[in-house]
Amino acid sequence: MTAFPAVLLPLPVAIPLVVCAAMLATAHLLPGRVPDILATLAALGVAILSAFIAAHAADGPLVYWFGGWEPRDGVHLGIGFSVDEASGWVAAFIGLLYALTFVFAWGFFGRTHGHFQILMLLFLAAMVGFCFTRDMFNLFVWFEVMSVAAFALTAYHLEESALSGAINFTVINSLAGFLMLGGIGLIYAQTGTLDFEGIAAAVARGGRDPVVAGAFCLVAAALMIKGAIVPFQFWLADAHAVAPSPVSVIFSGSMVSLGLFGLAKVSAVVFAGSDQVQHGLPVLLTALGSFTALLGGWMALLQRHLKRMLAFSTISHAGIMLTGIGALSADGTGGMLVYVVGHGLVKGALFMVAGILLATRASIDEIALRGLGRGIGPAGIAMAIAGLLLCGLPIGVLDQGTRGVQGALAQQGHGIALAAGAIGAALTGAAVLRAAGRIFLGLGPDSGDEAGAPSEDEREKANRPLWLMLAPCCALLVLDVGLPAHLIEHALPRAASAFMHRPAVDTVAEGPGWLPWMSVLAALAGAAYGLLRDRLPAFVVRSVGATQSAPTRALEALHSGLIGDYAAWLAVGVAIIVAMLALA
Amino acid sequence: MLPYAVAAWLFGIGLYGIATSRNFIHLVGCLGVCQSATYVLLLGLGYRWGSIAPIFYDHPPGTPAVDPVMQALVLTDIVVGATLTALLLVLTIQAYKRGGSLDPEKLRPMRAGSKSGRGQGSSRGKDEERTAP
Amino acid sequence: MSPRARVALLALAALILLPGAASVIAGLPPFGATIARYGERINAITPEARHVANMVSAINFDLRGLDTLGEEFMLLAAITGTVILLRGRRGEGKTGRAMRRPGRAVIPRSEAVVLACRIAGPLTALFGLYVVLHATVTPGGGFQGGVILASGTLLIYLGEGYVGWRDAVRSPWLDALEGGGALLFALCGLAPMLTGAAFMQNVLPLGTFRDPFSGGLMLVENLGVAMAVAGGFTQLFLEFMEETREADEPDEPGEESA
To answer: Which residues in chain C have Cβ-Cβ distances shorter than 8 Å to A138?
Structure first.
């Protein structure tokens, strides 16, 4: 008989599953808006339960063994859930994000008997299971359930571009699943168990072992594919941009971050005892993370399709999160966990704004939308605030995360990663601010090139009231800005240490205070350049243009949309990880 | 060590097939080959010479048996594979109906139908060149 | 990138990956030498603890039941996705005309085929049920039996034609079967919690070793899985079969195009 708070642990996973199955069984009988209501209530229930669990996990992780199979004689027989404070709060955030997304998507998917809500609830259950579990194969199962639900949700629009985006997404993420399964098989063969603690103990006992390193490479590659790190990032822009807006909110808001969350957990908990892994990780993660941050930011600036731009911005921020993990300290990982929540809130709000534009103005192209945002001012304000938050405005949850990550990197002397992260954030913020200025203020050169729009005629369901779409967006931003900073500061050192299974630290380091302001200024300058280019002296424009054209062309050519290219780069990426670990 | 080498080979050749595929159905098959690599690896890791299957109906409990955990894992893996194949084939059907072609090289996301070459417009450096009427 | 560039990239990757794979293979325990401690322990304790003979079923439905729950819902997600994707274009109407390919002869169904299907169909269904029910004593179970049952319904199409198929196989029933099976499995997890046990703990009487009715809660879960898999795969076949019909009106565009 398990103690009280721990006995709640299966519920945040079981409730969405039961509601999902019940909705499917009665699919043809449920009237009108009942699926929306049920789904929203289920998501809220998950959020509240997870928050309750997280609050009770402050003293130590809550553990639950499924089927009553407690470990005997040191052999872990069943599957366990082990929820530390940080994992619980991340799950609560995910539940809340889903609830707001269901409100945003109210009435969006009218024709399909609640199938959208069924898939989203399953997605939610898988994410919560992914956060809570302490079993490697269970982690894989939730990873795959997330992936399959995401595949089905991506192709909803059924346009040609949606289909190829969905196919690319499906193939690459399936390969990720296979890699993860291979890694799990290898680590099971070497250690004889599937439980995190069991594997960690066995890894620590063994010495330098190529099989353990190989298993880590495969699992890390799989999680980095999900987390859209270079060179695995190609699928994200394609999939993201073509998925319906409510689904994009979830993808960028939580799915990508969860891949990195998983990587942090696995490297800190399971492979903590392997010196080879711990020596190889900082260089690998900070290098890949920096590169990803820069590439994502650069590509974001080049996009005119709003959702694709936001997708590249997610890639950039994923790179920043990866550098946070690479610091291998409670500060860095703690900062990254806060960053996951903050980035999810802000990016979710931005995708909702994109959805609002698509529904009310029937276009998602930045140039075609020029000036058309004038009737929906609140959305513009939301977009501007979100853009400023993205580039590092020093208020709110996202900024706290950034400061944590930057503090950890500064402490360990990773100057390049620090700079790359700041530049990446500045670039993405510039892209969003430029788009906001063009759409809502009508600034920017009048190109008149609708024929150059890269996507087909897009529109989403237009007959929802504006306030219904705007309210969740504003709620997300209010949460990000309004969450009291001292609550997080107080809990973070303890939570981050518990997450990494290390002794508690007292405080987390903070980065240089001037760095976020530099990012904000750089972002404003970049946005201003984009919008006011025709009023600047010619030599400025020419010199800036000259530096960009060759790398820009190269980057655009690489993002070709062809699955064959992506598969080749996947192999290269795995090779990079193997090489870096072999050298450690 | 032969089964493990076979698993590595299967994954490699499947990945090569995906990278050079000219037909979506062929691509789905190559993904299946990659998946078979995981089956071979897992079942090979779970095997023991001279052991029976982990079903004690004809043999008394306590007879050496192979690893049942690996077999359960592979069962889950098979279901995963079936679901992925079904979804991919459905996407392929729809792609064929919409685009008329089964060639991955011809089906590109985010490309306007009439444009040739690169589709993603860049609004920072290239607006004027591309759009002057 | 040209195909040659891709192959070059793959070759570059192989340069690093092949030595890596070789060192991993060399580091693994020799093939067939030993099995992991987890598996060993399960083989040792489960026949006594749960009175079942099939260790794999015990793992799937008891020791690691949560994995199977997740996998079950993954199947549900994939089938739901398939239904959305195919039906979203096609709409929900049925049509009696099959698509005709130019240049291919249409051969009427022969009586031998009809007879063979009428004999084989019930036999397949019976065999599928047998496989489902003997989960704990033979290498059978809900997944395996469910797929056999689903493929048995294809014999209805072969023997009776499209009209017979559509009369026998109806989408709302399949949805109910699939959802009901998944719901049953999920409730098998929650119900023990009401009696104070853990999630999916085996609280039913365990029965006799080597008897088909052994394993307690495992049998209920097994039934849930069988229902869900049979319903799900038949739904899949239904959707794919509908793709071969001639559409009465042109395919509708996706949900959101106005």
So the answer is: 64, 66-67, 70
